[in-house]
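Need the bound structure for zinc ion, inputs here:
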Amino acid sequence: MQRAQHILESVFGYDAFRHSQADVIAALLDGGDVLTLMPTGGGKSLCYQIPALVRGGCGVVVSPLIALMQDQVDALRQLGIRAAYLNSTLDAATARSTEQALLAGELDMLYVAPERLLTDRMLDLLDRSTVSLFAIDEAHCVSQWGHDFRPEYQRLSVLHERFPTVPRIALTATADARTREEIIQQLQLQQAAVFVNSFDRPNIHYAISEGANPREQLWRFLEREHAEDAGIIYCLSRKKVEATAEWLTAKGRTALPYHAGLPADQRQAHQQRFLREEGVIVVATIAFGMGIDKPDVRFVAHLNLPKSIEAYYQETGRAGRDGQPANAWMAYGLQDIITLRQMVLGGEGAEQYKRIASNKLEAMLGLCELIACRRQALLAYFGETLDEPCGNCDNCRTPPQTWDGTETAQKALSCVYRSGQRFGVAYLVDVLLGKSDERIQRNGHDRISTFGIGEGLSGPEWRGVFRQLLAQGYLQTDLDGYGTLRLTEKCRPVLRGETTVQLRRQRKPEKVKKPRAAAAVDLDPLDRPLYEALRERRTALAQEQGVPPYVIFHDSTLREMAALRPQNLRELHTVSGVGEQKLERYGEIFLAVIQESNFAME
Ligand code: ADP
Ligand code: ZN
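Answer from helper R.:
Posting the output first, comments after.
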């Protein structure tokens, strides 16, 4: 373990292990197997990188994320670690020389796609090499029930059979107990030490807002908090992805679309720009993001409701992997609820599947309409308890106001009932407001008792009421595609006046306050120019080498440099994220930038 601590400091430039990193590493150094569950950004990679270096031989990392192997390898090479990868994107000559390097004991770390690893040729090669450990990354891919299922993963138990003495570590950020069990079964990890970390991401601020004009709200949010930051915006449909990216581009932001309908090379190019340039926004369907380990994604925004809390947590988890403040922001509306319920309950598929999907959607809606701390609810969903409200979500910072909406709900529900449960929200709101158009007259709904009884509220306010009644399960939509509303059983006591209905008041748009989550905010304004200069230097170096800027130094490292202004290599070495290799490669270059800024200040 002493060696491990030494490597942490000298190679990676960090002082202390986080979460259960130290325990995991100790278990692997003992020769045991490990399963570790850690949230995104928790620091999974060190768990296998350090023991691989301590044990000697080559650590073999199985990962489904072929497109990202190059970046992972680049990042390790920056640290002076001898890393390489083998997958279908390599030409034969490069693949062969990588294989030779493995046999010759010249590799510390090798990334392999699972289908490649399982070939006879590869297994044979490993037989003839010294393997320090096997790391099975994204281990939840063995699960048939998850959305990332990879059949090859189920065959990875062969590693255990063929290399019984080589320790294995399976890693995932998927929290639930069922997936955990499946990983253990499928990969034969019954003997493994299991480390489950808290899934809390304290640096992420959660905010969910409802109501009209989500685009405008998004724009205000971006202007206020992320005028220059990189982030991801999720939309449900390809069309909306395209439209949103165009709109943001027209507004002067660098925004790139990403969805399964784009040609593969364009998708790849957009992903590359996101990783390599600063301040790029990707607008994407859920097809984007798995394994993206860009540490400085400052915000994840949802312009539509995700289908489940799992999806929401996974997507928002891509923000702030570097531990710096980040935002998870979402706006959703009535139409989202209607569309998603239709997608989940309509369509093909087994009843059992629909029921599970429907429960997940209801849980997501519950989170949206929640009045209490969002983080407590999120963690509770994953079986964790947070004793106190977090203080870093919208509900904690600006507690929502509620009002007794019983009478209002009765009006809305009886309007649905009296018009025959055959209409959508727009029509019902018109009836409540007493708008006597031709269609309403033809249906005779200008003569029912609920006609015109809703004048106390505006149209948008009524829509908000219907949204909450839908979300709270008093109403359901027909699957006819028209958004027809019907009453549910839950309505009876309300209509009889036996229970009350609490509604939340629409939140006013948050006042412009000092941005808390933007990059470099905790920097003294005096240090800001130096920080920018350091970033520029980093970008230039990254471009020269064709690597993402963050593999040279993270923002947090540059920020610390700007604040501490180290004057020599020894001082620079104390900055978190500056290991020996990077000190040697870049130390003088960054010290020169600091020197220049000293002159400028005098
Ligand atoms: P994960 O794969 O779990 O999402 P990573 O392994 O990419 O997370 O680590 C997230 C970030 O945290 C990386 O930038 C990594 O360098 C950093 N990190 C990991 N462990 C430590 C540590 N002990 N101290 C400081 N930073 C760390
Ligand atoms: Zn909270």
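Comments: The two ends are 47 Å apart (CA to CA). The longest strand covers residues 204-210.
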